[in-house]
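[Q] Does anyone have a clean structure-token version of this?
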Amino acid sequence: MGYTHFDKVSGNNGLFAGKKGSEVQVASATGQLSQSGVAITKTAVQINDALAAVAGSTGTGTSIPNSGITTVSSTSGAKNYVLADPTAAGDRKMIICTAGTTDNTVVITTGSTTCTLDGTNRTATMNAAGDSLDLVALSTTRWFINVNNGTVALS
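[A] Here you go.
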């Protein structure tokens, strides 16, 4: 049998961990997980997508998730990526180029023809390590470029 810091044991309270008097909730009574006492509201798929780094493509249109941070690169010819459309206003996305040159570009295109990066353009081209875009979704069909760092060209 386990021990508890609480006076009464009840499954209605959820699961708590930590030193007596400093416990934090790690799961609610319904199974909702928490990190440092804050409820995790994203699904496992959304969390995995946000943490995924996309490897180089051979021009087939490697998918980039619509949230989190993704690194892209090219060391031999143009590499093509497709950025998933936002699911809702407020979605955040950062894309960082880790390797590229004028001959080895990274081309990122929005997932659908109705989605734009800035209200007009659907394509961003990166050609140097350190190029990056910090995007915020204004809707499900439009990204807002919060920061365009380096020599990212839009078309």
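[Q] Thanks! Anything notable?
[A] The longest strand covers residues 92-99.
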